[in-house]
C-alpha cells in the first residue's frame, strides 16, 4: 500500500496544474483547522481543491502539496490501517519534508470507514494542513462536528451560481453596457432551466438529461439506499420525483401520508419524515420552515421545498411553461442559502416567499409577471404586511423585467429582475 500511495503522489507531482474556473468561495489556505468541503455530488468540490492547490503553488513548493481522490479505482476497499501508509510513504519519498508544512487534500474521503480517526491523529501530530471533501451522507456537517471534535471548519459547496456561470462562459459583466446586458440576459435564459452543474454546460438537451439522471441515480443508490439499507425504493424514488417536481410548494407530511395510504403504499409517517431527512442530508433538496417565535409552532406548519439545482426540475417536468415562477423562486432560494444558513417563509394574512433574519434582515417575494393588478397588489401587500410585522423599512420583489423602486405606506420596495438580483446579491 505504501508503494501505491507513493506512485499516486509522484503522479500528482508530475502532472500539470489543472485549469479551473474560479469559484466565489473564500476558503482559508493556512487555517489550523481541518477544512471540510461538503455538498451534493458533482457540484465542483474537486475543482475547488484544484483551485486551492493552484493558489498554494504560487507560494509553496509543489512537492509540499498532496492530492488524492479516493474514488480512484486503485484505492477502492482500502482500510483505516492502510491510511497509515499515506504520510509515511510521502516522508519516505521526501524525508526533509518532515520539518516543513505539508498541505494534504483528500477528495471523497468518506469512502474509507473511520477515516476521521486517521485525520484526527495526523492533524494533532504532524505539521500538515488538511482539506477533505465529501458528497455522501457519511460526510455530513453534523457528523464532522462530532467525529472531528471542534477541529474542523466546514464549507457547503453548491453548483455554480449565476455569477460563476457567466465566468465559466466568459460573459463580461458590465451593467453599464447594453451589449453586455444582452449577453447576460441570453445566458440567464439558459441558466434558468439548465442549472449550475458544470458538466451539463455546453451539452445538447439529450446529454444534459442523461447527466442529470445519472446524478440522481448516484444520490439515490450510493448516498441513500446503500447507507440506510432502504427497502422501499419505490417510495423513495416517488418522493424524489415529487420533491424535485414541486419546488416552492408547501408540503404537509400528514396530507402526503394520507395520499400515499390512499394509493395503497405501506408506510408510516415516521418513514416519510426519515426519507425527507435523508434527501436533505444528501443535499438533493431543502425544506424552508415558516418563521415563528417558537420551534413548536414552526414544526406544526408545512414547509416549502426546494431543489439543489434547477436542472432536476427541468429533467422531471414535461412542460416548463407553467413553472417559470417556480424556477425563479428556486434560484432565489439557492442564492439565499449560499449566503445564509437560516431561510424562512413568512405568513400573516398573506405569504412572503422568503425571510432571512439577522442584523440585515430581508423580506423577498418572487413573481415573474406582475403586470396584472391583482398579482401586483398581492405581492406588494404581502411585503408591506411583512415589513410592518418585522419592523423593516425595505423589502425586495424579484421579477422578470421590472426594475424600479417604489414607496408604499412609508416603506421602500425594490423591484429588480432576477438576473440582476443574482449578480447584485
UniProtKB/TrEMBL annotation:
Coiled coil (residue ranges): none
Location of the DUF4143 domain: 222-365
InterPro entries: AAA_14 (IPR041682), DUF4143 (IPR025420), P-loop_NTPase (IPR027417)
Annotated ranges, domain AAA: 32-166
PANTHER family in UniProt: AAA+ ATPASE DOMAIN-CONTAINING PROTEIN, ATPASE
Protein name, per record: ATPase
Source species of the chain: Leucothrix pacifica
Amino acid at each position: 500500500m505504501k508503494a501505491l500511495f507513493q506512485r499516486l503522489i509522484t503522479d500528482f507531482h508530475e502532472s500539470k496544474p489543472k485549469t479551473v474556473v474560479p469559484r466565489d468561495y473564500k476558503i482559508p489556505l493556512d487555517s489550523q483547522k481541518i477544512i471540510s468541503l461538503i455538498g451534493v455530488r458533482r457540484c465542483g468540490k474537486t475543482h475547488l481543491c484544484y483551485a486551492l492547490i493552484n493558489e498554494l503553488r504560487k507560494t509553496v513548493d509543489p512537492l509540499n502539496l498532496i492530492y488524492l481522490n479516493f474514488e480512484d479505482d486503485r484505492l477502492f476497499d482500502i482500510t483505516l490501517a492502510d491510511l497509515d501508509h499515506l504520510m509515511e510513504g510521502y516522508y519516505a519519498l521526501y524525508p526533509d519534508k518532515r520539518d516543513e508544512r505539508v498541505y494534504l487534500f483528500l477528495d471523497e474521503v468518506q469512502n474509507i470507514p473511520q477515516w476521521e480517526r486517521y485525520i484526527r491523529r495526523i492533524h494533532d501530530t504532524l505539521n500538515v494542513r488538511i482539506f477533505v471533501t465529501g458528497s455522501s451522507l457519511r460526510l455530513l456537517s453534523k457528523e464532522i462536528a462530532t467525529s472531528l471534535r471542534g477541529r474542523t471548519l466546514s464549507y457547503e459547496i453548491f453548483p455554480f451560481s449565476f455569477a460563476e456561470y457567466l465566468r465559466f462562459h466568459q460573459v463580461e459583466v458590465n451593467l453599464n453596457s447594453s451589449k453586455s446586458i444582452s449577453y447576460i440576459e441570453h445566458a440567464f435564459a439558459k441558466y434558468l432551466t439548465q442549472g449550475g452543474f458544470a458538466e451539463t454546460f455546453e451539452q445538447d438537451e439529450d446529454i444534459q438529461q442523461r447527466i442529470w439522471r445519472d446524478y440522481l441515480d448516484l444520490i439515490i443508490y450510493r448516498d441513500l439506499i446503500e447507507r440506510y439499507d432502504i427497502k422501499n425504493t419505490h417510495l423513495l424514488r416517488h418522493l424524489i420525483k415529487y420533491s424535485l417536481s414541486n419546488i416552492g410548494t408547501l408540503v404537509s407530511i400528514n396530507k402526503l401520508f394520507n395520499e400515499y395510504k390512499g394509493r395503497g403504499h405501506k408506510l408510516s409517517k415516521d418513514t416519510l419524515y426519515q426519507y425527507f431527512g435523508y434527501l436533505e442530508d444528501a443535499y438533493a433538496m431543502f425544506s424552508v420552515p415558516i418563521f415563528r417565535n417558537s420551534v413548536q409552532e414552526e414544526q406544526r406548519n408545512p414547509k416549502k421545498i426546494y431543489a439543489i439545482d434547477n436542472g432536476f426540475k427541468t429533467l422531471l417536468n414535461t412542460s416548463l411553461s407553467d413553472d417559470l415562477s417556480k424556477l425563479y423562486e428556486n434560484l432565489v432560494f439557492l442564492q439565499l442559502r449560499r449566503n445564509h444558513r437560516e431561510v424562512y417563509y413568512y405568513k400573516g394574512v398573506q405569504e412572503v416567499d422568503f425571510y432571512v433574519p439577522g442584523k440585515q434582515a430581508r423580506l423577498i417575494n418572487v413573481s415573474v409577471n406582475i403586470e396584472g393588478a391583482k398579482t401586483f397588489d398581492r405581492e406588494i401587500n404581502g411585503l408591506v404586511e411583512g415589513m410592518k410585522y418585522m419592523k423593516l423599512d425595505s423589502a425586495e420583489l424579484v421579477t422578470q423585467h421590472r426594475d424600479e423602486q417604489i414607496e408604499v405606506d412609508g416603506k421602500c420596495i425594490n423591484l429588480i429582475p432576477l438576473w440582476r438580483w443574482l449578480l447584485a446579491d
